[in-house]
Amino acid sequence: MERPAWAPRSIDISVPSVSRIYDHYLGGSHNFEVDREAARRAMEFLPGLPRIAQANRAFMRRAVRFAVDEGITQFLDIGSGIPTFGNVHEVAQSARPGARVVYVDHDPVAVAHSEAVLVGNADAGVVPADLRKPREILSSPAVQGLIDLNRPVALLLVAILHFVDDADDPYSALAELRDALAPGSLLLLTHASYEGIPLPPQRAEGAVDVYKDIRHPLIMRSRDEIARFFEGYDMVEPGLVPMPNWRPDTAPEDEDPYAFSGFAGVGRTA
Ligand SMILES: C[S@@+](CC[C@H](N)C(=O)[O-])C[C@H]1O[C@@H](n2cnc3c(N)ncnc32)[C@H](O)[C@@H]1O
């Protein structure tokens, strides 16, 4: 298999990756046949996966604009993925020139691609790191150089926590990040769930099994379990809701039913 220039030599391109499968759902071009094959298998069970991914991206952009309107100028996006269009730095910096953005991902393709799109952007940086090691993120040169932790930050954990098992204690990682944030900081979060999926859970389970097969299990949490990620935050209205219902720009009545799978919310530190 030929290795394109954007694929770092360190990666095994015969093994599917979560970020490249997601890139395929979104119509991106940074994926290989193994990724597309895994995406196709998942979509056999859950055909609405591309629509869920689009609703997730649309929430992310609305929430970033909300954060800018709240006066936030610093963004820490963990699990930032392979940027397609309309990324956090584009939304934030067009609404507020000079906004600082740091992307964090543990996937080498996501990191390499973010580095490429950020060339010449002095207000944004990338950290190759893992959410499960918050200290490495907070002490990284990009965070230290670009983010003033004494001022409010928007922390984005968008479509990442459902890849972190309870055995890896994501709740502690979040507490550590929250404790590092200044009052008035925001947590912008989405998470997959069986709640809201317009199919019987047994059917959606087939898609979950595809992620198990590629050794990146998808953890479908309940709304209550997802709400626990906001411990120490006050929920911003309308709370933890299906993605299209979070401060929609237009009435969501015509939305595809799949867009209502999973949850989105924004919390504010006191
Ligand atoms: C579904 S993508 C979401 C991308 C982007 N946040 C969005 O919502 O459009 C999930 C991303 O999280 C990354 N990821 C998963 N587990 C991670 C971890 N423990 N630490 C850092 N990144 C992680 C994956 O590599 C992938 O790029």
Description of the structure:
The chain has 270 residues and is of the alpha/beta class. The chain has ten helices and seven strands. It has a seven-stranded mixed beta sheet. Strand 4, helix 8 and strand 5 (186-191) form a beta-alpha-beta unit. It starts with 17 loop residues before the first helix and ends with a strand. The model has no long low-confidence stretch (mean pLDDT 95). The structure holds S-adenosylmethionine. S-adenosylmethionine binds at residues 18-19, 22, 56-57, 60, 78-81, 105-107, 110, 130-132, 158-160, 163-164.
Major sheet characteristics: 7 strands, mixed
Order of helices and strands: HHHEHEHEHHEHEHHEE
Quaternary state reads single chain
Summed up, the helix count is 10
**Net shape:** globular
As residue ranges, the low-confidence spans are none
- How much of the sequence is in beta strands? 5-15%
Percentage of residues in helical conformation: 25-40%
Instruction: Output the structural class.
Output: alpha/beta
Give the names of the bound compounds: S-adenosylmethionine
The number of strands is 7
Mean pLDDT: 95
Q: Ends: how far apart?
A: 52 Å
Spatial strand arrangement across the major sheet: 3-2-1-4-5-7-6
Radius of gyration over all CA atoms, rounded = 17 Å
